[in-house]
Amino acid sequence: MHPITKDLLSWYEVHHRVLPWRNTHDPYAIWVSEVMLQQTRVDTVIPYFNRFLRAFPNIQALAEAEEEAYLKYWEGLGYYSRVRNLVKGARYVVERFNGVLPEDEDALLSVPGVGPYTAKAILSIAYGEPYIAVDGNLIRVYARVEQQAVIPNEEKTKKACNAFLSIILEDADPGLFNQALMDLGELVCIPNGAPLCHDCPLQGYCKAHQEGKEQDYPLPKIKSQKKEEHRLVLLLIHQGKLILHKRPSSGLLAGMYELPNVVLDSPKGVKKAIQNLQISCKNPVFLGKRTHIFTHLKWHMQAYVAYVDEIPEGMIEASLTDIQHRYTIPNAFSPFIDDLNRECFNCSQFLFY
Question: Which of the residues 34, 75, 214, 258 is marked catalytic?
Fold first, then answer.
């Protein structure tokens, strides 16, 4: 075994994080965890993972799930295209591979929603195949140990990282090796602030550490500019229930239920925006402002509460029970519902039944 790998795995044996998806070699459970962990913190994922696996314990169960059910179990995690692709992939696996994720990389990559990283994570952790699941943590460790001025999100960086780590993997358990590097990057070789080099099992091998330049590597990511929109959001109340609108079946937040909203020509164009929605509402009352950030988009929202005498065309009304257990509300809008409950505008008229 390579000396770096030996020291890394010895450290991991003592310091590894106890995570529910590490108690199994079930490729389905590992697949679900990897999808949930995309752009989401580990601590956030743990309760979602446990609930999701209880509701959909295997690929067959997920493949048969109704949209409203799987979206509801995902509610709050955001990036809902992840679960849609997961379900699409589950149905494909049931149809093409009898409900079992394949052990062949090319076959696994044919599954909708499974990309190179996810495939390598499944193959190494579930099946013990010698693949490196290169993510930001592994790139950061590689860049510092080898003192490489690389940009993390470039493809050539991933290839260089994979080549280096494949050499030191040797005959070690690939799953443990990948997870040890992930934990090292999360707990010790951290991205923000000074890494905890005094706790690092690789400090004797780390070229950047030897020169005291750990924070110079890797180079900053290339970030794209986010588009920004100002939006009016309406919390419309009809006979004690809240009005919801279902988004289109494709695009951003596809198929989810939202509060009626519209893009503002300017932050002050509220009256005109309400007219454009063609909704007859009584005396809108300002509720508050919030900003929500998507991957490539930022919404600056201002919300108003108003009463309506009838349900606007193409919309539905929902009780608190409906919102809690039936309809999936995007993270962008759910805080306004919480705000409304706290403020309790005209409580004698607004009651969630």
Answer: 34
Q: Is the pTM of this model over 0.90?
A: no
**pLDDT of res. 347:** 46
Is 351 in contact with 240 (CB distance < 8 Å)? Answer: yes
Active site (annotated) includes residue 66: no
- Which whole number is the average pLDDT over 253-269? 86
Whether the ω angle into residue 130 lies within 30 degrees of 0, i.e. cis, is no
**For residues 215-243, average pLDDT:** 90
What domains can you pick out in the chain, each with its CATH number? Answer: 3-216 (1.10.340.30), 227-343 (3.90.79.10)
Separation of alpha carbons 32 and 266, rounded Å: 41
